[in-house]
Every structure is written in C-alpha cells, then in structure tokens.
Design brief:
The structure is a homodimer. Chain A is mainly alpha-helical and about 170 residues long. Chain A has a domain at about 40-140: Arc Repressor Mutant, subunit A (Orthogonal Bundle), CATH 1.10.10. Helix content of chain A is about 70%, strand content about 5%. Chain A has helices at about 5-15, 25-50, 55-65, 75-80, 85-95, 120-140, 145-170, and strands at about 70-75, 100-105, 115. Chain A has a 3-stranded antiparallel sheet. In chain A, β2 and β3 (about 115) form a beta hairpin. The longest helix of chain A is centred in the first third of the chain and has 29 residues, at about 25-50. Chain A is globular and about 55 Å long. At the A-B interface, α1, α2, α6 and α7 of A face α1, α2, α6 and α7 of B.
Chain lengths: ~170, ~170
C-alpha cells in the first residue's frame, strides 16, 4: 500500500480539478457501504431473535457492559452506543426484568445508577458473543485474508476522513 | 487487483487451516465498517434535521419515490427500504400531511394504494439530494480517487460474500 502514496497525492490534485458538484463516486461508495452494513445488521438481528429470543439493542447493551466489570452509568452506555438516554433506560428495564442486568445506586453518589451484567447475564452474553463471531465469519467467508487486511486499511482511512470532516464541520458551525 | 487472485486462493486454504473458532479479524472488520456507517448515518440524520427539518426515514422514502415517477405501493417501498409495512405507512402519513407525497388508489385495483412524490416533494427532494451528495463527499474527502476505487471493489466482494452466506443459510434452515 505504501508504494501507492505518491499516486494518491496525484489523485487528490486531479480531484480538485473535477467538475464542481460531481461527487457521484463518493455517493456510490457510501450507498454500497450502507448496503453491506444493513444486510449484516439485519441478518444478525434476525439470528439473535431466532436463536436467543433477544433484540439487537439488548445484545449491544450487554456487549458494552461485558467490557466494564465495575459497571457503567446510563449516560456512559448511551454515549458509547450513540443512542439517547431514554432508549438506554428502556432497554435496561427489560434486561433487569429478565435478571440479566443489575441496577444499583453508585457507592459514592446515591443519585447515580450503576448498571452491570449479573452472573447469568455474563454467562448468556459469552455464549451469544461466540455465536455472533461465527455468524460474522460466515457472512464474510467470501473474503480472503488479504481482502480483510485491505479493507481494514481502507476503512481506517475512511473513519479518519469522517472524523476529520465532523471536526471541521463542528468548528464552522 | 487481478494479479492477486492466485494469492487469494492460497489465503483461502491457509484460512481453512486456522485454529477453529478464531475469527477475530472478520469481527474487527465488521465493527470498523459498522462504526464508519454509524458515524456517516448519524451525521446525515443530524444535518437533515438541522437544515431541512426532516427525519432520515422521510428522506429515505422520498429517495425511493423519486426513482419511480409512476409511484410505488407500500409493499414495494417497504421491501426496498428493508423496513416493515407499518413503519412505511407511518412515514407516508407524515409526508402526505406536509403535501410532499400523494397517496391514491391504483387505477387497476382500488384496494391497492399508490404513493408518489408531489411536485413540491420532488422539488424539495432534489435540493436535499444535492446537499446530501455534498455532505457525503465532504465526509469522504480524506480518500483519494484510488482509495474510492479500491473500496468499491472490496465492498463489492463483501456484498457478494454476505448474499452468498445468506442464501446458504436460508437453504440450510
């Protein structure tokens, strides 16, 4: 990939000379990425429902809690999952009712609620996570190891580009 | 890319010899793709709300209708957008109230409702679509033309892999 850097620089210049307003290439790229992500997400959602009778938001929330043995606040989870506090609270309520998540006041501040996985929740999550990993591998089985590495590099650039643009936009506003 | 095909074949064999159950690479790839897609979608959703006071589901529905001058049924839209009929109906109701979408019985079968953009809806959508294209180009500005082409090729393989796996899964079930 390194060898192609000078060409990238050249392309960037060419791009600057493009007819203004012609960004069909980037639009097509975005739509293709969105299709891939939507297909995988829909498949994972369906398999979680069929095999574990669990919704994707519940699985995603358990995945966050699994990474944090000391628990998290609703605000922290909401930020990580990029969804509203209200949505997190609804999902937490369901998981507490099923005995998979525990909710208790923080030791240092009783007004703050700390949520964490129960032992049963942790056990179930690990089984689901192993299946989830298998499903993803199955869905991406048509990619060689080389494809996976190439995509990882290209998507890292993509993520950096998005974050840079979001930062500039926030500053402009 | 063609020159690397034999290597791909070799990789596939290597992969078959991997420790079973080790699919961290594919999982990381999926999580990175999901992050990119979520970041772009969140940004588009926010800008549509701020600049046009419109929700993303309404924009997506208008985008489908714009491609079909003779209109579509709720079932057709629902299939294209991969969401439920009920959700489509809710979004359509809001757009009809705002005068952006028209809903009328099909000429050949009065029980079937055909939805289409009104002249006002079409005009507004074209303005929004031009902005949307600019936003995507801005978010992906860190990618060279070469990066865009590489990603298009890799995501085409990804989409084919997902569709193949979904087909096999459906046959197994």
């Amino acid at each position: 990939m390194r060898a192609s850097l000078p060409l990238n620089e050249f392309d960037r210049e060419t791009k600057a000379n493009e007819r203004p307003g012609d960004h069909k290439g980037e639009l097509r790229l975005w739509l293709r990425m969105l299709t891939c992500a939507t297909l995988i997400e829909r498949e994972v959602r369906q398999r979680l429902r069929e095999e574990f009778q669990i919704t994707l938001p519940r699985f995603d929330l358990m995945a966050q809690l699994e990474k944090s043995p000391t628990g998290m606040t609703v605000g922290e989870v909401s930020q990580r999952l990029m969804v509203s506090n209200g949505n997190v609270t609804t999902v937490v309520t369901g998981l507490v009712e099923e005995g998979l998540v525990d909710k208790r006041p923080a030791p240092h501040d009783k007004r703050v609620q700390i949520i964490s996985l129960t032992a049963a929740g942790r056990k179930l999550f690990r089984i689901m996570a192993a299946c989830h990993e298998e499903w993803i591998a199955e869905l991406l089985a048509g990619l060689s190891d080389e494809d996976v590495v190439l995509l990882m590099i290209q998507l890292k650039k993509t993520k950096a580009s998005i974050q840079q643009a979001m930062k500039s936009h926030a500053t402009d506003a």
